[in-house]
Amino acid sequence: MQYVWDLFVRVFHWSLVVAFAIAFITHKSEWHLIMHVNAGFMAGYLIIARIVWGFLKTGYASFNAFPLNPIQAIKYVWEILKGHPKQFIGHNPAGSIIIYLMLIVGLLTVATGILKFNDGWLIDAPDLLQTLHQFFAWFWLFLVGIHVVGVITESIVHKDNLIMAMITGVKRTHDSNSYVLDKNVSRETLHTSAMLSTGLKRMMHSLTNLGKLSNKLYLMQEEENTPAKFYLKLADNGGVFFSMYAGDETLLLESYVFNSKQHLLEKIDLLKKIGCEDKYYKLLTSNMKRMYFIVKTEDCLIAASPLYDTDSERMQALGILKKKLVTAEVEDLIE
């Protein structure tokens, strides 16, 4: 028996299995979109960390330990078909190709997902990005299938449980039946872990912030796509008025009181028609030095905004109002 897979590789392997499974299972559901995105980011973090790990002196996990060699891979597959393949302590040549492909395709899947999720960032081609994202995801699944078949085949041929080896880190070899700890691998791994600890923490912190930013952008996009609403309400004096809220339930506008619901609905229709024109808005300051705006025509005051502490807040709210007016919906709370 020989110690082959260090703790990092084992944690990476099974964490990536979980992240990929969650991302793939939730990819069709709008309700689970945040879960899908977070799982995708986790897969991306893991792949980047594994690539960094592979370029360092980490024993059998190092890329130097399983170089890309298509000719040797073909020979190995041929030897398997003949029933007499050579046993490799680390990755065999055929498995190495699949490992490299899974890392590359995994990164491409995550990258296209990020670009699609942040529509318009760097590449403004949502349909193309969606197609590429789905292609790479399915190709990744195909590679995973080949990997699983290869693991099962090698386990049977060499009478060695490779799945258990990725849990315990230990593989059976023909050279010895006793457990042998490869001290060089262990020493290199520990040394590399010490060197990477600070840098890896910083990288994960940066990637986590990127994930939070993407979630924030998603919520902003959801808010952008959620229509504003005019809520029709009954005033204390028996009249009617409306309160207009943005998609995130932020109050944008409140009307003056009108005599009838029909009159109020007419004002809402008028507001939708004139709402994009600056001449119907008047910027004012209250006695308490707080800022607001009103909407008025030549013969009628229609509505007023809440009070704002700064002019920038007022102008931001006014911009949202203009953008939301045309598509705003009406909900009757009077009846």
Automatic annotation (TrEMBL):
GO terms for cellular component: plasma membrane. SUPFAM superfamilies: Transmembrane di-heme cytochromes, YegP-like. The chain crosses the membrane at residues 7-27, 33-53, 97-115, 135-157. Pfam families: Ni_hydr_CYTB. It is found in: Cell membrane. InterPro entries: Cyt_b561_bac/Ni-Hgenase (IPR011577), Di-haem_cyt_TM (IPR016174), Hydrogenase_cytochrome (IPR051542), YegP-like_sf (IPR036913). One of its GO terms (biological process) is respiratory electron transport chain. Keywords: Cell membrane, Membrane, Transmembrane, Transmembrane helix. Gene3D superfamilies: 2.30.29.80, Transmembrane di-heme cytochromes, Chain C (1.20.950.20). Residues 4-169 form the Cytochrome b561 bacterial/Ni-hydrogenase domain. One of its GO terms (molecular function) is heme binding. It is a multi-pass membrane protein. This is Cytochrome b561 bacterial/Ni-hydrogenase domain-containing protein. It comes from Methyloradius palustris.
